[in-house]
Amino acid sequence: MTTTVDRPTADPGSAPRRRRRLSDRAATTTGRGRVGARLATLVVACLAIFAFGQSSTPAIKYAVILSVVYAIAVLGNNAVLGLLGEMNLSSGVSMALGAYAFCYFANDGMGVVAAAVAAVALSTALAAIVAIPTTRLQGIFTALATFALAYAIPTLAIYMKEYTGGDEGTPAPFDFEIFGQLVSGSTTGMLVAALVVFAVLAAASLLMLNAAPGRAALMVGESELAGVTNGFNPRVIKVLVWTWAGFAGAVAGVLYALTVGFIGPTGFGFMLGVWILVGGVVAGARSAWGALLGGLFVGLVPVELQSYVPAEGTSIVFGVILLLALLAGGNGLAQWIERIGLLIKERTFGRKKVDA
Amino acid sequence: MTAALEVRELYMTFSGVDALSSVSLSVPQGTWMGLIGPNGSGKSTMLNVLSGLYKPRAGAVVVSGSDLGRVPARSRIKHGVCRTFQHPQLAASLTILENVMVGAVRGRGASADDETGLQWLARLGCAEYAEHLPAEVPYGVQKRAEVARALISEPSLLLLDEPAAGLSARERAELVAALREVREVLPDLTLCLVEHDVGLVASVCTELAVLSAGKLIAHGPTDEVLADDAVKLAYLGSRSTT
After folding, report:
1. Which of A1, A317, B67, B162 has an alpha carbon within 20 to 30 A of A262's alpha carbon?
2. What does DSSP say about strands B17-27 and B5-14: parallel, antiparallel, or unpaired?
3. pLDDT digits over B41-90, tens only?
4. What is the pTM of this model?
């Protein structure tokens, strides 16, 4: 049973030595690669937001802080949307869990930091538990399950009056200081704390996207069949991604409680989850720094719109902006900004040839 | 000598219809076996059962002496079973090289580095596309990248599902050359090749198995099977020699 074979057609030794480098265009398209440049952009974006917040009126500064808080939730939700391609409407639920647990622990005599850590740990654990059945679903059924969860939270908060304060809500600690800076409301300390937390989580998500965990999640999200036959457990990877989203949501919830100083069931309605999802779509689900744009979209646009259009009309304008973002295609505003930047770079320095 | 692949009395049923019925065969290590048959004969079902994506109603799949009956699809790569798909299953956001390296993460070639991935791409004639995204490269390159991803996992049994489907004549020739190169480099590799192009199968495989309506109607050396009247009737639609 011998067979004649030809000589090798390619000499393996002649393979060009390369790293796993993405071209500029591929990096722009996928939201991956160029980690150093993207980290620098993230820092610049955070500094710009800080400068904007500091130079604004207290009301706008407060809205900016809330926007950064929402950006953290957008960042978490983006992992589900951008890596797995699944629709999560329950980011508001994670925020509610984090906020309520934080206030409960803090008002129960626990220190603010300890209460925050305990609240995030509890909420993340709950998110992991909820993720187990949720990741059994696919497509529209995943969205519907998260919709049901988001829809139920305000009612549940009222029902669990003993822990949440019911309709009346519950106060958050006001006197928390770091390095002598008051971290609550519209203080500079609150703005810095929110931006630092966002920057750390955004950097972590950027690094993960470009490392083995991100590649595994992308493999499963973009081709589950290949993921399975190459040894990955899609269920485990999906649960981890959803848990990360729950973690980010819980962190946002704690910061939300510190910023607002009071939490009630109306703060975590179904629409919060929709806005966070929309923020990710509009700004770009694969961009770490783009999540900041998403947060600004959620936190600032509705507030600013009320200055120009009647309250009843804000939802319509909001919807039109979303529609335009979807029609524009690509991966949101962040990708468009990166594309324009690339275009300027190519016009200025010429296009780099990536082929061998 | 333990067979690289042994299939015993395999049955697979979809909604009461037998997709595979009493299929048994044994493939020695290092054999390249083509699995052919008309549309709907159960070739892809067979591959899905071998790779663990389908759970058979009855029967056993034994690879290198290990019964894989209770081994889930995701764990078969550790038992040396890897596969490609009729339509390339590459992650759109990973480069060709990154897609290839995915095969090394959980496979038996876990220590493989980028250089190894590039060498496999070079052997398959597509190293120059390493940094490109799947959407930026020709279809044939995507297919060969899938083969490279499977090979970097150091399989003992490689399952190829219609690797030539959708390829131009030139791309098919490149694929054949690449497969021959693989056989030269990995003489112990056992291959199960599902393909409609009988000429391509005959040019690279030393054994043929023929399925018809879920039943194995022939299995043996390529020349003998192609000369079999039952095969001509069921698969080629004629008793005459072409």
Report:
1. A317
2. antiparallel
3. 899 999 999 999 999 999 999 999 999 988 999 999 999 999 999 999 99
4. 0.87
